[in-house]
Amino acid sequence: MPILSEFKENNMDIDLDLKDDDLPYEEEILRNAYSVKHWMRYIEHKRHASKHIINQIYERALKQLPASYKLWYNYLKLRKKQVRGKSIQDEELEDVNNAFERVLVFMHKMPRIWIDYLSFLSNQCKITRIRHTFDRGLRALPVTQHNRIWPLYLEFLNMYDIPETGVRVYRRYLKLCPEDAEEFINYLVNNNRLDEAAQQLVKIVDNERFVSKYGKSNHQLWNELCELISKNPQKITSLNVDAIIRSGLRRYTDQLGHLWNSLADYYVRSGLFERARDIYEEAIETVTTVRDFSQVFDAYAQFEELSLSKLMEEINAKETPSQDDDIEIDLRMARFENLMERRLALLNSVLLRQNPHNVQEWHNRVKLFEGNPLEIIKIYTEAVQTVQPKLATGKLYTLWVEFAKFYEENDQIDDARTVFEKATQVEYAKVDELAAVWCEWAEMEIRKDNYKNALDLMYKATIIPKNKISYTDESETVQARLHKSLKLWSMYADLEESFGTFQSCKSVYDRIIDLRICTPQIIINYGMFLEENKYFEEAFRAYEKGIALFKWPNVYDIWNIYLTKFLARYGGKQLERARDLFEQCIENCPPDLVKTFYLLYAKLEEEHGLARHVMTVYERAVSAVQESDMYEMFNLYIKKAAEIYGIPRTRPIYEKAIEMLPETKAREMCIRFAEMETKLGEIDRARVIYSHCSQMCDPRITQDFWQKWKDFEIRHGNEETMREMLRIKRSVQATYNTQVNMMSAQIPSSIEPVKSAMQALEAKAIETNYKQNLVSAAVGANIAFVRGEVQGGDYKKKQQDDGAVYNPDEIDIDMDDDNSEESDEENDTEEGKELKNIPIEKQPVPATVFGGLKKKDSDSE
Fold first, then answer.
1. If I label 160, which of 227, 287, 613, 721 is the partner at 20 to 30 A Cα–Cα?
2. DSSP-derived 3-state class of residue 853
3. Element (H, E) at 12
4. Closest CA to 510 of 549, 473, 470
5. Per the record, what is one GO cellular component (predicted)?
6. Is pLDDT above 50 for 853?
7. How far apart are CA 47 and CA 75, in angstroms?
8. 861 vs 856: CA distance, rounded Å
């Protein structure tokens, strides 16, 4: 075996235990001693051998190839596996460490080797050696690969309790990765180094470019800082806590309550209780939201309560409490009670800080101090000085008025007048507010029975300036526009009526009218005032002035009172003048208001005029009123015509009503017309009216009408007239059906197939609704009434042909003789069946002769 002997000679220091199956691999290695592939093949062949043998092979290979990363990596991996689970005092661990040290001689630029070595070394509790190794690795590797070493380094720091080392290492780490400052802060907090943690928090909070890796906002970091420094005042000594939290108060105005509580908590934990109270008081006086106030007040109350209970526990623990202890308890108790009593006032202060121009909150503040006059005066004084008229929320003048009333209630009238005097000089936003101040001042003088002073005030307030000023000109002051305030003038007029003379009051009303600021109510008041003083014509002139100033419909009340008063005074004494007034009134009166005046006009003519004038008024009225009142006016017209001229003279009115009224009312009027003719015994006239009305009565809708006609024919007709009625009914029904069918043909025929029973019902309902709408549309049109004269022409011709005497007032009733031949065939038709169903005693009596219905000459009547 020359090869084996040769190899042994070259490797005398290595104890080899070769077998026959190893010889081929040894021969290859001798031929290719620098081939990593052959060495790895040999190692793979010996993978089941003892660790001593396989380690020797790795050592031989590394001796030949010391710079092979693959051999070193696999060798170190194998060595770590061999010592897995060994104690940290085992010498084999040191052998592995030496192996790592040897590989670093050749591969100190390989980060994977450093990572494996440091990971392996970190579990051996050799703190100094591990730290030095980390430092060596950081020095050996380029800075671009330090991010692979630092996580292991930080993990090592958290693994062992070495705070000083950890702090120093973290400081080095933050130079490379300043964005990980939060990890350093957590490390400091966990190791109770709160002072430095607070310093680091201050740095990142002040850094506007800092972005939290945990997604925390700058505000959240501020809260953490405040919580940290407030709860650990003894451990944080390098920072000015008061300045830091106050800077947060300026930056984060939406969290004032929390920040104020943090600052107060800092002083409480520091043992500076009086300073904490000062902070709480300052917070309550500066916060501007109810939420912040609630937070601070609750914390303040809890602090006082705990302070009191703690003091009582300490005193109770003493064997002999002193008198000073009792005084201290009373003082603390009084302080706590005072705080609770001030809660509403403090809350009101918060609301006023939100909006110092809120008038209602100032009133609420006054109510809180009820019973304390000095404080109330102080509040009112502050309120009127603080609230700006242009920014006021609410009515500013109420503050001045209540301030003056407060002095009035305390019998300080001079002070109240002083307040009112100052109130009249304020630049209010609206003229009405200034007018209200003057009115309240005058009312105060009235309450004190100083009527002359009240009148003088009103006179002073209503002085008209020399220059013409528009009431709506915002550029002018409210004092300059006050003379056109209707509120002020109305009160002035009331005062003059109550305490002035007739001439002075009349002068006031005239000035109001001259300024053109009056209302219809002012005109009415003026007229009533003049009537009370027996100046009736003056009152009528006042009404006429108001009529000239206003238009419809505002002038309605004036006209109504004017005409009523005029008729009540003069009646028919000045009939022509009254007629002129009525004509002037109804000339431009809208239809919805003219009804009242026509009724008054008709009443006047009825009581003092002629009958034909009454009829003329009613005839004009039925055309002038709105459609909803037309039916009522026709009823009155018919009633008056019947009373004055008799019932026959109502026929033209009925005809006109049927033409003008809507279809529903026209149908009712036709029925009434027919019933009237029936009572007069004019059966043929009534039948013609029913026939005319049938043209606007769909049998499917207006069944009542057809039933009334049927009853009429049963009582007054015969078989032929009944047949004619049924024929007309069929004809009308066919007409409506034809209209509906023609309109229904326009419905789209391409309807999608019904897919379900519910859809079929819905489709049927839609179609039925559509047809009903078409029927309503067809029925909605009015049918003009055909007068008797239209039918008289054919009748005249017929009588002339027969040699009969022609009567121009006779109504022609067309009798179709051709239908008699078909009478036997029609017995089985619909009307035949209806005739058969009529009882014998109610069947119509056959008529032999139907003459024309003659009209009576209205003029002769």
1. 227
2. strand
3. none
4. 549
5. post-mRNA release spliceosomal complex
6. no
7. 12
8. 8
Amino acid letter for position 459 = Y
Nearest to 852 by CA among 814, 817, 810: 810
Structure tokens at 138: 């950081």
Q: How many residues does the chain have?
A: 861
State the CB neighbour count (10 A cutoff) for residue 795: 20
- From the list 166, 226, 156, the residue with the least C-alpha distance to 190 is 166
- Sequence spans of domains, the chain: 518-568, 571-645, 670-742+773-861
Rounded-to-integer distance, Cα 333 and Cα 328, Å: 9
pLDDT tens-place string over residues 153-191: 988 888 888 889 889 999 999 888 888 888 888 888 888
For the segment 644-663, the average pLDDT, to the nearest whole number, is 85
- Give per-residue pLDDT as tens, 247-280: 888 888 878 888 888 888 888 888 888 898 999 9
Residue 715 CB neighbours (<10 A):
11
Q: Which element (helix H / strand E) includes 826? A: none
Nearest CA among 570, 631, 637, 561 for reference residue 599: 637
How open is the CA angle 27-32-33, to the nearest 5 degrees? 95
CB 157 within 8 A of CB 171: no
Tokens read off for 452? 């002359």
Assign 810 to helix, strand or coil. strand
- Cβ–Cβ < 8 Å for 451, 431: no
**Residue (of 364, 399, 397, 398) closest to 382 by Cα position:** 399
Alpha-carbon distance of 810 to 794, in angstroms, equals 11
Going by their DSSP bridges, the two strands 810-811 and 853-854 should be labelled as: antiparallel
Query: How many Å apart are CA 118 and CA 129, to the nearest integer?
Result: 10
- Give one word for 239, left, alpha or beta, with left for phi > 0 and alpha for psi -120 to 50: beta
Cβ proximity of 694 and 702 under 8 Å: no
Rounded CA separation 589/585 (Å): 6
